[in-house]
């Protein structure tokens, strides 16, 4: 099952598709592509052309290869130069005239430039056509949505690094006719571009669209709430912070499609989202979401930072969600610098044969004590978030003996443990204290 789409982590964007097993992404020659996304929602309305280029270069240098953005946050959206995206706040009437008597780029000219610049950096632009709030408020009809999607599909049909994120923080059954119109029209006009649906918190695209032919891969939003703050009991998925459970559910479905956490808790955002007085999520929390979901079988992971996703400036009078750090500083937050180690680890061993395997563990643990395990035929990775012991059922990878090592997700460094028999059970003691955030990956390799 090869669905051709966009390029990845290379000199320039080439083509990308879904692997034959339906679980992961591959490039045109069949090499694995690990989705490592960053969230830059408001790039087109907040940044100048030069600022956007600086941001994209930084993200490439930090190992990201996908940038998630909104084309329209609101129907009155304008870019940093003051040019409006639409005529009369009507999505079926894009304003492509640009700014008159000025060298500054118009709204869609800026989008064009950023997409092309990203392509030359080897970056995908995963673009939300219209944020869900506008549709929820009844401001977009199916007819308008179809016309707008046709405009987008035609304008970006030759841009190989475009991925479509239908939806935008909304339930799929809220105005479903609009989402179907966008999805089906984009598939008609852009049959070679990957498309998914970005849902609201604690929901997944699988809740509504898994069997739709326009949906190539699944995306869920594990959200920004702690276990004790969870309000999703009425949703199909009410897993608290256990984002690995979304992957496990998606993994059980047919046909097989890749899945990933497209919006976990952002670094630097208040726990629970709306109260700035709450503690903020840290780089340790980001790592936990990333390793839990990827080891459960996800095709990648999307990182986010509170200040970066909204490109917060100190001059902003009403920052969202209590943001205080300017985006130019927040791009260097610890979590943003650590995500590349996950991608490097996953691509260091045969990736396409990888499967989740909790059978490696004598006991999985619960909540923050949960251990996540994944393996290929001759390697295994086991993640522990809070130190302590890992009890392993040996013999689930090939060979009579294995080499063991500890991988530090903060630095990417590996410390050898030694060789041991690949039989029976073995107890490994995680380096350092038994506490939340002392996270390590146990690596086992066949000798």
TrEMBL record:
SUPFAM superfamilies found in the cross-reference section: (Trans)glycosidases
Every Putative collagen-binding domain range: 355-445
Source organism superkingdom: Bacteria
Ranges for domain Apiosidase-like catalytic: 20-352
Pfam families xref list: Apiosidase (PF13204), Collagen_bind_2 (PF12904)
InterPro entries assigned to the protein according to its UniProt record, in alphabetical order: Apiosidase-like_cat_dom, Collagen-bd_put, GH
Protein name, as recorded: Putative collagen-binding domain of a collagenase
Naturally occurring in which organism (per UniProt): Parapedobacter composti
């Amino acid at each position: 099952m090869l669905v051709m789409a966009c390029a990845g982590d290379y000199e320039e964007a080439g083509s990308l598709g879904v692997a034959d097993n339906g679980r992961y992404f591959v490039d045109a020659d069949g090499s694995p592509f690990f989705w490592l996304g960053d969230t830059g929602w408001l790039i087109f309305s907040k940044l100048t052309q030069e600022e956007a280029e600086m941001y994209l270069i930084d993200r490439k240098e930090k190992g990201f290869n996908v940038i998630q953005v909104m084309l329209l946050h609101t129907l009155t959206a304008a870019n940093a130069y003051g040019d409006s995206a639409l005529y009369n706040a009507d999505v079926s009437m894009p304003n492509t005239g640009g700014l008159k008597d000025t060298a500054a780029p118009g709204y869609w000219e800026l989008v064009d430039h950023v997409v092309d610049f990203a392509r030359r950096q080897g970056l995908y632009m995963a673009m939300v056509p219209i944020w869900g709030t506008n549709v929820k408020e009844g401001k977009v009809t199916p007819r308008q949505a179809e016309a707008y999607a046709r405009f987008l599909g035609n304008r970006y049909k030759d841009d190989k690094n475009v991925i479509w994120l239908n939806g935008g923080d909304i339930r799929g059954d809220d105005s479903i006719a609009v989402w179907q119109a966008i999805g089906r029209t984009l598939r008609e006009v852009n049959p070679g571009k990957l498309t998914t649906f970005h849902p609201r918190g604690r929901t997944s695209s699988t809740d509504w669209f898994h069997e739709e032919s326009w949906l190539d891969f699944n995306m869920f939003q594990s959200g920004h709430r702690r276990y004790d703050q969870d309000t999703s009991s009425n949703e199909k998925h009410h897993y608290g912070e256990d984002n690995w459970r979304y992957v496990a559910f998606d993994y059980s479905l047919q046909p097989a499609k890749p899945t990933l956490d497209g919006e976990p808790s952002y670094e630097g955002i208040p726990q629970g989202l709306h109260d700035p007085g709450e503690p903020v999520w840290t780089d340790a929390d980001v790592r936990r979401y990333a390793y839990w979901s990827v080891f459960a079988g996800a095709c990648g992971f999307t990182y986010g930072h509170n200040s970066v996703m909204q490109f917060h400036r100190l001059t902003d009078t009403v920052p969202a969600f209590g943001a205080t750090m300017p985006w130019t500083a927040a791009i260097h937050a610890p979590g943003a610098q650590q995500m590349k180690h996950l991608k490097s680890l996953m691509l260091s061993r045969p990736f396409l044969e990888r499967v989740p395997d909790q059978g490696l563990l004598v006991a999985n643990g619960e909540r923050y004590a949960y251990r996540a395990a994944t393996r290929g035929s001759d390697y295994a990775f086991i993640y522990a978030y809070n130190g302590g012991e890992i009890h392993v059922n040996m013999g689930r990878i090939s060979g009579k003996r294995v080499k063991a090592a500890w991988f530090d997700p903060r630095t990417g460094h590996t410390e050898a443990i030694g060789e041991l028999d690949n039989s029976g059970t073995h107890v490994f003691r995680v380096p350092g204290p038994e506490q939340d955030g002392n996270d390590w990956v146990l690596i086992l390799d066949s000798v």
